[in-house]
Amino acid sequence: MEKYVKFNQNRWNNVSRKKGNPYTVPLTSEEYKEAIENELSVGLTVGKTVPTEWFEKAKGKKLLGLACGGGQQGPIFAGKGYETTIMDFSEEQLTKDRLVAERENIQIDTVHADMTKLFPFEDESFDIIFCPVSNAYISDLENMWKESYRVLKKGGLLMVGYMNPWIYMYDGDDVWDSPDKELLLKYSLPYDSSELEKQGNIEINPEYGYEFSHTLESQIGGQLKVGFAMIDFYESKDNRNRLSKYGSDYLANLCIKL
Question: Which single residue of 54, 66, 161, 221 could bond 44 by disulfide (Cβ 3.0 to 4.6 Å)?
């Protein structure tokens, strides 16, 4: 495991123990029951839910939640009848899925694994891969796309959310913590926090970990290169982020394995 991956893994374990991040707080019983009683509503990004017609295109209900532990979306899928597997490199996040599954008497398989390595599944195992924003924490997307393609069945769907790379051109502390400070362009793209650290330009905060922007060529083009065909796409905004006044800070797409 690369140094930065281990660092990020420890980061997610730590914030999950402290519930120091909204994505580490599992659904309550009330939230779970409300979710199951209503139309399927899950998010790949902040600011918009995934269109229900994306799921209607699936040929089956065997679903891999990729890097989306935390006891939030996995239980909803399981409660809606999906044969759900959640893979995450944070054992603490997977603990949240097991907690909700036991409490609500639903089945969720949890797999502790790193998406920068080979996925621990047979070829053509899943009908759907659902991956909320997470690849900002890995430096190279090639393995993620290749392995996603391998473990999906023919006609299987890849649903993935990711950051719009332009937001990394600005200092995150200024964006979030200094609302009255003028925003100035600071970083060139693609943003690579590990390289900036080596150059002495930034210090990595253990509360946030290493992050990486990716070109649209590596995000979208990377999916197409391994054999996927894109069939839908949307943008969304996190209105808490003042950059969203100027453009969408999140992107999401639906691809099919031909």
Answer: 161
Q: For 34-78, what is each residue's pLDDT tens digit? A: 999 999 999 999 999 999 999 999 999 999 999 999 999 999 999
Helix axes 91-104, 29-37, angle to 10 degrees: 70
What is residue 219's DSSP assignment?
A: I
| DSSP-assigned letters across all residues of 42-70 | --SSSS-PPPHHHHHT-S--EEEEET--S
In this structure, are residues 93 and 72 in contact, taking their beta carbons and an 8 Å threshold?
no
pLDDT category at 136 given cuts 50, 70, 90 is very high
Burial of 222 (0-12, 13-18, 19+ CB in 10 A): buried
Provide the 10 A C-beta neighbour count for residue 170: 17
Q: Where are the alpha helices (DSSP H) in 116-238?
A: 142-151, 172-177, 193-198, 216, 222-225
Task: Give yes or no for a contact between 56 and 84, defined as CB atoms under 8 angstroms apart.
Answer: no
What's the predicted TM-score (pTM) here?
0.97
